[in-house]
């Protein structure tokens, strides 16, 4: 196989061997149009353009009359070849004056002496030549490339890559990701609050057993209706900014305006556990309702459980600060958008923390309501500023036997309770001990007192173990 590159000149043909591997072909045509505007930009070379090929010596020149072996499919033009060839063409042509090389190009057979055929081949090459222009590199008959070459000469600054266009492109991608996930979240809310109740209602016309109580689908729709409208507006605003990104590349101001309204999701999150429990109980109690829910899950969620989709509200609130953190990485620190995005991130982080604290307080409040229903007395547990810290059962040692007791620790008092009847869940308050009056003496460390503690104040002393 002939190892070389054929260069066609108007005066004669040369067979040249390259001292280096052939250069990587350029980008495809659809990428050429994309990078055409970078021809005069400050883009620098990722690597220098390949050196021009070197003529082989006279002894290594090869004659090849076989059409299959002599056909050369790739013709590459280097930028520095014209200058190099103009300086060496006269000198090199004299050394090849006595040679007779023949080339096979398609069905045509050429020799150096037939100028008519040479002109026809040159015309054919010019007609079939395909230019793939990239900054600093021209080539034909090629479809691939792995680099962008610079037209400038090699220097110390050629290794510097201009990053601003790439940063802007990544900034747009982060904004696009935020918009895309916002639309996906809106579609999930629509499926939960609109499609699910309509689906159960339409199926109940065929099977009346689907009308179960409590009506969980409508309860979910009632909690998510306002939330869906809010996020639909956010998604529409983000989409409008993406459509006009070239003139107004910013989205942080949208999140600044609607950030405080995201707190309304706390109302749904406080009821989410109860709604999920009711939905699971209805599915276990009514097989027809469970089959309808399963069909809805396969149609809208790809078989994923509807109960798990209720977590999307909390997940979306936590995802906003993460997306803004990525957005800030590619935002210019000197721009106004950077300051707006930083402020929006702080706002959404505070909203997420407030919702998290609200969930903890809501769970605490539910436990206090549950304890209030268990008390067989008129004592009011729920007071402003009071928080439940710990509750549990302990065993009181007396002279004759062991008695169960129930301790409830708040941030201001300790309730010392006892069962109304042995084995009952109802409690009677025996003592209310303010924490500032309690004294816990230090017990000696041994096996007998490892699981005991003493409570003591001016009016009462209790030993439990």
From TrEMBL:
**Which SUPFAM superfamilies did the record assign?**
DBL homology domain (DH-domain), PH domain-like
Please give the Gene Ontology molecular function terms for this protein: guanyl-nucleotide exchange factor activity
**DH domain: which residues?**
170-358
* One Gene Ontology cellular component: cytoplasm
Which domain of life does this protein belong to?
Eukaryota
* The protein, known as: FYVE, RhoGEF and PH domain-containing protein 6
What gene does this protein come from?
Answer: Fgd6
